[in-house]
Amino acid sequence: MSILEKAGLVDPLKVYDGLHISKGFLRDLAQSPDEVDPVHRKEIEGHFGFCDKCLKEKESYLPIGSSEDK
Question: What backbone torsions phi and psi does residue 55 show, to the nearest 5 degrees?
Answer without folding.
Answer: -65, -45
